[in-house]
């Protein structure tokens, strides 16, 4: 009787340990997967708002490509950004080449006749190839376009599919917008490969697996390769690729999608535990995060050479810290951590800490040509805040950040340093080109007033620009920022609304 009671207690301990550990892993994975996916929805909403307000011209393909280049540079979750028109026009930019460091663009024009221009760029944004070969692609035939048109302006998610241009599995997030030139659909592509890389960081044991599926049972991502073969050109179903342990759970549920909760079941006489947790991708669309393993993986010291899962869990989370830094605080959603750690909450640009980190990386390995750092502040912004309040000031800063972002070139790095101060890092072939790019940002800010609550605020900006000189020896990021800031302060005393290069204004000339 005592032996039976002890055995029952031991089994309950193992089940409790298994359930707690798997629930923790599933919660970590679901929170971070949800945050990862929401970035695409946010980008679509930002582009839609910018196009609705006129900050992004629906008929300017070149301007859209510049905006898309800046987005891909600053948002690693994105694989591509696109706009499809009701007359068949199309603008598309995605990652390309080794390690996805290059870019591929496709622009389809239909007036006066159909013309398809495809271009490829290297990691520095330099054009490496171009073609005008005919291509039958029509955005209006794609699922993302049809779904968005049918959803009356809401953000929609496609089912997982294989991207035609890259051959990689992913989803497209899209939303339709009516413009003076007709209806357009704005979208963003998210590769699912990164989800698999994240799940590999939370591998629970050699016999267990973490996976992502949707309501139709697609095998979206997994922490280790499925034993079954996937059909080329499509996202397989879990039933077609599952190992015996997962297949037994699917058979037990007798449905394409697994029910949320904790599941206990036997496979060939061996007990398994599984935790399934829902992730709401958007209202009405739910994916599932699953984690399962045999309960023997959770025993501690009962079989001599098996490690307790608590230790495996710890190793898994440490591994995920290395593979996916956002899991540093695993109990908090990725989107919140990203926003707080690297992103300015008001403009969506890199914050000061994130910008300085990128600046320090550029200082360690400066590229060829000229490297310039510009610091901007807004002329007249204090009057907006003092007269109309912080709400108006926040709206102005948001609009200015969007205008600056739209004016960037591939490879430029823009950040908000605080208040009405922004900073821009530019790598170009010459100092003159750097200066021209900075002037382009100033022009974008001053091009037209920012309208808030029916009041038009005419704004301009002044910039101080400093260049990295390798002959001067190593400078810290703080020193270099101080040089650009000094050029700004001294320049504003002479005149606003222009770029002042370090050295153009010196102390003896300040009081002339």
Automatic annotation (TrEMBL):
Keywords of this entry: Cell membrane, Membrane, Transmembrane, Transmembrane helix
PROSITE patterns hit by this protein: GGDEF
Subcellular location, record wording: Cell membrane
Protein name in the entry: GGDEF domain-containing protein
Organism listed in the record: Deinococcus caeni
Annotated signal sequence range: none
Family matches, as InterPro entries: dCache_1, Diguanylate_Cyclase, GGDEF_dom, Nucleotide_cyclase, Rev_trsase/Diguanyl_cyclase, Sensor-like_sf
Topology versus the membrane: Multi-pass membrane protein
Annotated ranges, domain GGDEF: 369-504
Pfam families (UniProt xref): dCache_1 (PF02743), GGDEF (PF00990)
SMART domains: GGDEF
UniProt superkingdom: Bacteria
């Amino acid at each position: 009787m005592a032996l039976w009671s002890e055995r029952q207690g031991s089994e309950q301990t193992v089940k409790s340990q298994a359930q707690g550990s798997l629930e923790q892993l599933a919660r970590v994975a679901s929170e971070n997967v949800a945050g990862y996916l929401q970035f695409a929805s946010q980008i679509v909403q930002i582009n839609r708002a910018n196009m609705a307000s006129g900050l992004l011209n629906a008929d300017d393909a070149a301007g859209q490509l510049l905006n898309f280049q800046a987005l891909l540079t600053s948002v690693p979750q994105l694989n591509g950004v696109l706009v499809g028109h009701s007359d068949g026009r199309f603008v598309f930019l995605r990652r390309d080449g080794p390690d996805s460091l290059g870019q591929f663009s496709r622009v389809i024009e239909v007036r006066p006749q159909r013309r398809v221009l495809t271009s490829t760029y290297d990691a520095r944004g330099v054009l490496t190839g171009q073609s005008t070969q005919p291509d039958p692609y029509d955005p209006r035939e794609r699922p993302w376009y049809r779904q968005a048109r049918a959803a009356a302006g809401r953000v929609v998610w496609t089912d997982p599919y294989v991207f035609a241009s890259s051959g990689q599995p992913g989803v497209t997030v899209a939303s339709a917008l009516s413009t003076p030139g007709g209806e357009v659909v704005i979208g963003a592509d998210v590769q699912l490969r990164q989800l698999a890389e994240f799940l590999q960081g939370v591998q629970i044991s050699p016999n267990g697996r973490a996976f992502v599926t949707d309501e139709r049972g697609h095998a979206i991502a997994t922490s280790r390769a499925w034993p079954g073969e996937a059909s080329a050109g499509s996202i397989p179903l879990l039933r077609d690729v599952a190992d015996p342990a997962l297949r037994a759970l699917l058979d037990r549920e007798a449905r394409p999608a697994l029910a949320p909760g904790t599941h206990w079941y036997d496979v060939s006489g061996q007990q398994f535990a599984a935790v399934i947790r829902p992730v709401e991708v958007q209202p009405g669309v739910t994916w599932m995060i699953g984690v399962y393993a045999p309960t023997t993986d959770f025993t501690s010291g009962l079989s001599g050479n098996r490690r307790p899962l608590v230790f495996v869990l710890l190793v898994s989370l440490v591994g995920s810290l290395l593979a996916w830094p956002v899991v540093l605080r695993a109990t908090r959603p990725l989107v919140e951590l990203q926003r707080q750690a690297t992103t300015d909450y008001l403009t969506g640009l890199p914050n000061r800490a994130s910008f300085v980190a990128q600046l320090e990386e550029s200082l360690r390995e400066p590229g060829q040509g000229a490297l310039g750092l510009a610091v901007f502040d807004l002329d007249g912004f204090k009057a907006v805040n003092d007269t109309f309040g912080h709400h108006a000031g926040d709206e102005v800063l948001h609009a200015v950040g969007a205008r600056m972002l739209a004016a960037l070139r591939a490879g430029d790095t823009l950040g908000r340093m605080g208040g009405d101060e922004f900073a821009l890092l530019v790598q170009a072939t010459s100092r003159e080109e750097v200066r021209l790019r900075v002037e382009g940002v100033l022009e974008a800010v001053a091009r037209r007033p920012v309208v808030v609550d029916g009041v038009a605020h005419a704004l301009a900006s002044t910039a101080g620009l400093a260049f990295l000189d390798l002959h001067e020896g190593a400078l810290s990021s703080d020193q270099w920022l101080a040089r650009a800031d000094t050029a700004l302060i001294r320049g504003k005393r002479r005149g606003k609304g222009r770029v002042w290069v370090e050295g153009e204004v010196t102390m003896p000339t300040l009081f002339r």
